Amino acid sequence: MQTTPNVQAYRAGLLTFHADPAFSERAHSWYEDGLLIVADGKIQAAGDWANLHATLPPDTPVTDYRGKIITAGFIDAHIHYPQTDMIASPAPGLLPWLEQYTFPTERAFADPAHAAGVAEFFLDELMRVGTTTALVYCTVHPQSVDAFFTASEARGLRMIAGKVMMDRHCPDFLCDTAERGALESEELIGRWHNRGRSQYAITPRFAPTSTEAQMELAGALARKYPDTYLQTHVSENEEECRWVKQLYPQARSYLDVYDRYGMLRPRAVFGHCIWLDGQDRARLAETKSAAAVCPTSNLFLGSGLFDFEEADKAGMLMALATDVGGGTSFSMLQTMNEAYKVARLKGSYLPALRMFYLSTLGAARSLHLDGTIGSLAAGNEADFIVLDPQATPLLARRTARTESLEEMLFALALLGDDRVIAATYSAGKRVHAREG
């Protein structure tokens, strides 16, 4: 017996991407008076109201968001949920920040109840800022992963996460063994990967906190489970790069350390990627690995400036990311704000359309999830957000004077924050509505 689809419709300005605006003149579609049609958690159609509204089944309710913009939900390509409670912690640099704040904070995640409480708050915050998918670091504790996925599954969210693997250069209370880290990771893959909308990421924290034995085992897992993700950090900080050179003198570069263990591949995402050279960038592009660009974190910790121009020359996959708690905001709009300034300081320019692309379809392509999320294309999962250009008095005043879509999006990126997100939808279900 065939059931009738559960259809919802939304009227608003619609923005969706088909390609990277840096390389295509027809990268996006904009419908000033648009209609988004959703059925059973999937996007059925998106286009002009005038062309589509007659196709709606009789008596279909239409949610009226006129004056607002609907676009795909934001995708955060690098974030640490256990660091929620230590965001905005002062330190002179990356390594002392890890010692003073990160490791002590992560210790508490041995307690499942604590992990669950942080996971609930963290996911609520992501929904509030319009982030519908994130690539998430947990802690060394398997229970931190279970708590995270339990909370995200209850909300019906598409999330990717993994247990951190660390077996040296960290406090004893966080130190794994190489074998236990691999065994627990494999058990978590079996428990959570591709269960509903949950996907697993093999997660060696970064090369300095893993022995060669652990790197070998992480690489072996990456080969055994090629449809899992792999996430780690690379070339974030000059002091860190020098440390890696001492620990792995045989490697040509920091990135080459991971390459030697078979970790460069599709669905591998490397946080930061600041201090790369041309060979590194070419290798990332060749292997279809991706860079997660973390501007608020890199500025906060004084790590350096990502080079968008050189990344584009190499043809690298890349996405924007918050890197909370080194990053200073959960908001992808605030992340765009800082990314724009980083690009200017490096002598290049990021149009607003490009920044929105890197937070939606560009991020989905970096995760090899285009065709599933990241745009309003028919058949995609209905993860979308509603942006309010009048969310604050200043925004309302500025956007009333904009003369193009680019100007409007630029104002949202440079002046916007969580208040801009009027509503967040995941698989067609509203999971956040702004109060007021």
Automatic annotation (TrEMBL):
Residues 69-431 form the Amidohydrolase-related domain. Its cofactor is Zn(2+). It catalyses: guanine + H2O + H(+) = xanthine + NH4(+). It is an enzyme of class 3 (hydrolase). Pathway: Purine metabolism; guanine degradation; xanthine from guanine: step 1/1. Keywords: Hydrolase, Metal-binding, Zinc. SUPFAM superfamilies: Composite domain of metallo-dependent hydrolases (SSF51338), Metallo-dependent hydrolases (SSF51556). Gene3D superfamilies: Metal-dependent hydrolases (3.20.20.140), Urease, subunit C, domain 1 (2.30.40.10). It comes from the Bacteria. Its EC number is 3.5.4.3. GO terms for molecular function: guanine deaminase activity; zinc ion binding. GO terms for cellular component: cytosol. InterPro entries: Amidohydro-rel, Guanine_deaminase, Metal-dep_hydrolase_composite, Metal_Hydrolase, Metallo-dep_hydrolases. One of its GO terms (biological process) is guanine catabolic process. CDD domains: GDEase. Binds 1 zinc ion per subunit. Belongs to the metallo-dependent hydrolases superfamily. ATZ/TRZ family. Catalyzes the hydrolytic deamination of guanine, producing xanthine and ammonia. This is Guanine deaminase. The gene is guaD.
